[in-house]
Specification:
The structure holds two protein chains of two kinds. By secondary structure, chain A is of the alpha/beta class. Helix content of chain A is about 45%, strand content about 15%. The longest helix of chain A has 23 residues, at about 15-35. The chains are: A alpha/beta, B mainly alpha. The interface between A and B is large, with 43 and 51 residues.
């Protein structure tokens, strides 16, 4: 396929320099093509199912909401995925092929996600899809991606209770995030009573169910459990209830704009989180959210995630620097953004191990695939398609960053169908 | 649920709960007044009301940034200037929208509904392109944060008090404008009988434009005030719009007093029920009560008696 031709002619907008540039592109690509020719396996061998793979390119899909209410959360994931793709391309691509991507907009609308998935799989024949954020959008994609046998790399921490042969879950499932954090609160902070508070949809409800079971097992007490509709902006009543019940820990999974309202109103009601009376432990506020809430309103809260931008290791320093160079110094990187960054890299590892882009061949290789350049440190794919990863507790600082105060010694095993927690 | 609490604790909780209800009431009044004015006067349902509020919020955000960079000494007072600016900018945009769009669609309520909904989508996407999809954090001056400690247990949030004062001032201002000014007299004349009002020489098109602008301007003030208690993002306006409609419809479409009474009723019901039930259940029960009352009184709590 004449991809070099199209770039050469298509780009010649300014006359002289454009022509020179296209000559150079042509020369460069010829050189690249001849130099890697020997190592590059033939397209017929690595692609037996009609994916969009040519002798020097492979096409993938990126499917997130860049318009609508979810754009706020999903744009970070798009940026991370593009960064990973750029880096892979710069280091020689996959099986000698450069990655090209087709980006589609899910528009925060779940049926649109299904339709765009169909388009990516049937029309563009993409070799992988990096995308989705909310559980609702993932559930919309699921039947389509299973029908046409694609592979989705899904970045968000989520409620579990799912395991599809056509999805790799690069974020944590609920037990990984919750169990370690409650143990931490009990052991190091002596917590005895808990108040569970969340937005009213599947993720907070499932998470709190797991939290409640775990608290019961430890012989401790849940003194309140509450849900507010998505987008709720008035939390004064629940703040009064919390003041009355005096729990040791508020376990919060409030999301979206409600988050901003909740923390601002807590602060206004005279609650200073740095006193840790009560201690606030959240599983939903990443550095991204703090930008909207304001560091002064969340200073002192604790979050339980697998990744914080402030993680002190060489991989992460490199990642943060590259991300800021690509998108600007004022960028912050939250847990999901990092998980999205893992997607292309894990896909690359699986393709190289399988020696093929075929979905069925990659799937057989997933279990045990490791990635030791992960910003979060090291991850490994479990046979249930989730990742082994560490869980960390960070304390929010005035500048909107988290200071890591605890991390699990071992990698937490992903357990999407936890027995005894259903 | 009150076992094991001392009576002082209970008293302070009830005091704070009463305050919570009142601050919800003032939030509702601020949200609903602008919409009620437009709906009552022109029969136009402005689906972009929430987006006008967010325009006010973004104005506040920009003003705070400006003061931080250029006039840090006056930062403590920037909020008042931000509110005035929010009112002016939203009113100007409102007048423009009325001229470009709404005036061509009078007597076609369903079309205005669709058109203003389309406008809301356009405005949301415009915010997203200009300010980015992420929520922005609006810095507040030090004196507006924290709480006044009345007793050991009772803390009154300062920003809650501030929202109450704004709501009260806006309500009084609207009352004076509608019932004590020449403009208000004309508005009421147009509402009661448009052809007759035109017959005696009132420029009803001008009145319409001014009213639409006024409603949008009040939305802007509301948006500025809500930066203290909520989020400022491209789609944050959506969080307010349902409650706003609820208050206006329940109050009776053409009555400003009705809007205030209904805001009071709904806010008290909701905050009391939120205290005894969970948040989602409180909302469900509030909606059920409203539906029940609307079935008995379809015209809302306080309908204007007009000969049709």
């Amino acid at each position: 396929m004449g991809t070099t031709d199209t770039t050469a002619t298509g780009r010649s907008d300014g006359k002289g320099s454009g022509f020179r540039k296209s000559l150079m592109t042509l020369a460069a690509s010829v050189m690249l093509a001849t130099s890697v020719q020997a190592a590059t396996p033939s397209t017929a061998a690595v692609n037996t199912t009609g994916l969009a793979v040519t002798d020097d390119t492979v096409t993938v899909g990126i499917l997130h909401s860049i318009t609508g209410t979810m754009a706020i959360s999903e744009i970070g994931s798009v940026q991370a995925e593009k960064l990973a793709i750029d880096q892979i391309n710069a280091s020689g691509g996959i099986l000698g092929r450069q990655i090209e991507f087709v980006q589609e907009d899910g528009a925060s609308d779940w049926p649109t996600f299904a339709e765009k998935t169909r388009k990516l799989l049937r029309q563009d024949n993409v070799a992988a899809i990096f995308g989705a954020w909310t559980s609702a959008s993932r559930k919309a994609i699921l039947p389509v991606i299973q029908q046409f046998n694609g592979m989705l790399y899904y970045p968000t921490f989520y409620e579990g209770l799912e395991q599809s042969p056509n999805v790799v879950y690069t974020g944590q499932e609920a037990t990984q995030q919750i169990l370690a954090s409650i143990d931490w609160a009990v052991e190091t902070k002596g917590a005895k009573t808990f108040y569970l508070l969340g937005s009213d949809y599947i993720w907070p409800r499932t998470s709190n169910k797991i939290a409640r079971k775990h608290i019961d097992k430890l012989g401790l007490k849940v003194v309140g459990e509450e849900y507010y509709p998505l987008g709720h902006t008035q939390f004064n009543s629940v703040i009064n209830k919390i003041k009355l019940k005096k729990p040791d820990v508020i376990f919060a999974s409030v999301v979206g704009g409600s988050n901003v309202a909740f923390y601002k109103q807590m602060k206004a009601a005279g609650v200073d989180f740095t006193d840790e009376k009560p201690l606030l432990l959240t599983i939903s506020v990443t550095e991204d959210e703090i930008r909207g809430i304001g560091g002064e309103n969340v200073e002192g809260i604790y979050a339980s995630m697998k990744y914080f931008q402030s993680l002190d290791n060489a991989n992460n320093k490199e990642f943060v620097a590259a991300f800021k160079e690509a998108y600007g110094d004022d960028m912050v990187i939250g847990d999901v953004t990092q998980a999205a960054y893992l997607g292309p890299w894990l896909w690359k590892a699986a393709v190289e191990k399988a020696g093929s882009f075929d979905i069925d061949k990659i799937r057989e290789e997933f279990a045990g695939i490791e990635f030791d350049k992960a910003p979060e440190g090291y991850v490994r794919i479990h046979e249930n398609h989730h990742l082994w990863s560490k869980t960390r507790i960070g304390q929010a600082q005035l500048d909107g960053q988290y200071k890591v105060v605890y991390e699990t010694e071992e990698l937490m095993e992903p357990d999407p169908f936890p027995e005894g927690y259903q | 649920m009150f076992d094991g609490y001392t009576s002082t604790e209970l008293m302070s909780i009830f005091a704070m709960q009463g305050f919570a209800g009142l601050s919800l009431f003032s939030v509702f009044v601020l949200m609903a007044l602008g919409l009620a004015i437009i709906f009552g006067q022109m029969g136009v349902i402005n689906m972009a009301h929430g987006e006008f509020m967010i325009l006010g919020a973004y104005t506040t955000y920009l003003t705070s940034g400006f003061f931080q960079s250029y006039l840090p000494g006056l930062f403590g007072g920037y909020f008042f200037i931000a509110m005035v600016l929010a009112f002016l900018i939203c009113a100007a945009l409102g007048a423009l929208v009325e001229w470009l769009m709404i005036r061509h669609l009078y007597h076609r309520p369903l079309d205005t509904l669709l058109a203003t909904w389309g406008l809301s989508l356009i405005m949301q996407q415009a915010y997203r392109s200009i300010f980015g999809a992420r929520e922005v954090g609006v810095d507040l001056p030090e004196w507006m944060m924290g709480a006044i400690q009345v007793t050991d247990m009772v803390d009154l949030p300062i920003n809650g008090l501030f929202v109450m004062i704004i709501a009260l001032s806006v309500a009084v201002g609207v009352y004076l404008l509608m019932y004590r000014s020449g403009y208000g007299k004309k508005v009421r004349a147009v509402v009661q009988n448009r052809p007759m009002a035109e017959g005696v020489g009132i420029n009803s098109a001008g009145i319409d434009r001014a009213t639409f602008a006024l409603g949008c301007g009040i939305a802007g003030i509301a948006g500025a005030a809500f930066t203290m208690i909520g989020s400022t993002g491209p789609s944050s306006g959506q969080a307010y719009i349902v409650d706003t409609f609820l208050v206006v419809v329940f109050g009776g479409a053409q009555s400003l007093i009705g809007t205030i009474v209904s805001a009071f009723g709904i806010s008290q019901a909701q905050s009391t029920m939120e205290f005894f039930l969970s948040g989602s259940m409180a909302k469900v029960l509030t909606l059920l009560v409203v539906i029940g009352i609307l079935m008995i009184r379809p015209e809302g709590l306080m309908a204007l008696k007009v000969r049709r």
